[in-house]
Amino acid sequence: MLYPTLNQPIVMLVIFFAGFASGFLFDFAFLLKKGLNNIKLVNVFFDFLACIFSFVIYFVANLYINYGQFRVFVVAVFIIACLLQRVLSNQVLKFFMMIVAKTKKNHRL
Questions:
Q1: Least CB-packed of 21, 65, 71, 81 within 10 Å?
Q2: Are 18 and 58 spatial neighbours (Cβ–Cβ below 8 Å)?
Q3: How much is the average pLDDT of 41-63?
Q4: Would you give the DSSP letter of residue 109?
């Protein structure tokens, strides 16, 4: 083993933040796709770019913090963090849209 078990929480934390950052990357790709009127080729292109950049984020974070060791729990934490960010961002977006709709409704009165 290259490093002691005490480094595992740090590994988990860094990989979690890398997955969270990857989720923001997918949000950015989603916004670009919506801005370009959902053209099929553009959707595929931005999804492909988001996946490639997400892999690069994972690879660099894993190489830097975990010495490039491939572990199932590291991949699982990365995926869970990415999915958690996507769910949270959708909920926050719905909350802000609700507030905007209420303020527009109150402003008209």
A1: 71
A2: yes
A3: 94
A4: -
